[in-house]
Amino acid sequence: MKFKHTRRNLRLLFIIHVLATHGLAAVAYRLRLFRPYIWVVQLFSAEYQPKELGVQIRLALERLGPSFIKFGQMMSTRVDVLPIDVALELKKLQDNVPPEPFSVVSTLLAKAYKRKAIGEDGVFAQFDEVPVAAASIAQVHFATLHNGREVAVKVRRPHIDRMIEADLSILRLLASLFDRYFPEYERLKAPQVVEEFAVTILGELNLRSEAAHASRFTDQLVGIEGVEVPEVFWDYTNKDVLVTERFYGISIDEKEQLIAAGHDLVALCSKVQKMFFHMVFIDGYFHADLHPGNIFVSDTGKILLVDFGIVGRLELQSRVYLADMLLAFLQQDYKRAAEVHVEAGYVPYHTDVSAFEDALREIAVPIFNRPLKDISIAELLFYLFAVTERFQMETRPELLLLQKSMVVIEGVTRELAPDINIWELSKPLVSKWAAENLGPKGKALRLYSEGKHQLYAWMKLPEEINQHFEQLHQKFPQSSAGLTLPDLLAIAALTSGGIIAGMFWQQPWLSPNLLIAYGLLSFGVWLQWVYRS
């Protein structure tokens, strides 16, 4: 245990050293860790050449390794709390890690399968020693099964789980210190940000989870013509190794190769946009790492997707609000766009809608004054998040992930066909979906779904109340023995009201339930007052 703490302290010292030597000594000093060491570093280190803050932070994160690089990539979407120039600089962070030697990979495979991995009596008949891709968590090799099927094998790096868990422990400590000693950044909610990051990166560690994501995309994209997801070979897949069908194709950022192969670039862009729209609005479950290295084009023009480690989710109500908001912006109806934010709870209900409308107009008009082909949905969301601090807008991780994905998708399509009009591609899709889901039929379906949820919650209410009474009796057995009928009625009313309020607080149909909860709470207080007086 002592060794574990010593190792963590050494890692902490290294982090402080990196901050101090990258022009961030003031930040390190305010964290109140190793202050004498910071003085020594500043005293004896060579004179630091000042750089922009964003560059300083990016270079420091790159020096600190994969976990911090991934954390910086996530933070690049947080323009609601970071200066825009810093957020843009963090988007340049690259996950460049040398691959593991083949001897290490071979050992990892044998350990994962508990048998020989390669050869006549091994799991794979043939296995390419040189990886085709290497990232911080895993690397990918091509191989062949004994039945002749060509596959892609993703192998997790050794001890990566321990390294990431150790870095997460340190990030949690730094977040708590940052929260305490940087009150001006209270809105960032650093501990909460680290926990959200932990959920994402720990999910990437389990390759069986990625396999499940791939299978779900296979099912939900079955109706989209020209898009394909690799088959998962479950018999060969576990938490350390993922085996999928091998795809042959051209990376979507290889424009010259695509032209030489005779592909229609505008048609490819249209497929990518429709695919992404389908993921976001129809399914509410989208690939959140669609950079060019994860999108390929087959010789028949199909879009081939790989790497499903990061996914985003949007509940139906969030999709409805998002569509309503995008349509309002498309129609340049900034009052409606402001109202949607309030209705969705993205900004407090007491927000001055007129002031918020002016803020939206301020960021949207310069974007919409451009030629249609230059208008960017992702940029609109980017600057929208940037103004939210003034209106106490709660950060929604799923929307930040969506915005990040939109930036990448727009970048991919514009690189292929600079003159393509993304709004022309998107508007009919959003309008059609909105007409179905914002109209009477859509509202009726949502009401039916919400009604089922509400009915189930009410059916669970007696069980919840009974559990609370049992807990009270266990905690205060003597006190509860002498309670009178009015006492019991008051406690029942107060408990029921509290449970109902807790169950329905964040539901879009909460008003009737909260009225009931308020009535029960009031009845309990009134009953106690009458009885005591």
Approximately how much beta-strand content do the residues carry?
5-15%
Low-confidence stretches: 504-511
Q: What's the story with the biggest beta sheet?
A: 5 strands, antiparallel
Q: What's the count of strands?
A: 11
Shape: globular
Write up this protein:
This protein is of the alpha+beta class. The protein has four domains: 2-96 and 192-203, no CATH class; 97-158 and 206-246, 2-Layer Sandwich (Phosphorylase Kinase, domain 1), CATH 3.30.200; 250-438, no CATH class; 446-532, no CATH class. It has helices at residues 2-21, 25-30, 35-44, 53-64, 66-75, 84-90, 102-113, 160-181, 190-205, 207-220, 255-260, 265-283, 316-330, 334-344, 353-368, 377-387, 397-416, 422-438, 440-475, 477-481, 485-504, 510-532; strands at 124-127, 133-134, 138-145, 150-156, 227-228, 241-245, 250-251, 285-287, 295-297, 303-305, 311-313. The strands form three sheets. Strands 1, 2, 3, 4 and 6 form a five-stranded antiparallel β-sheet that branches. Strands 5-10-9-7 form a four-stranded mixed β-sheet, covered by helices on one side. A hairpin with a 4-residue loop joins β3 (138-145) and β4. α1 packs antiparallel against α4 and α18 (422-438) packs across α19. The termini are far apart.
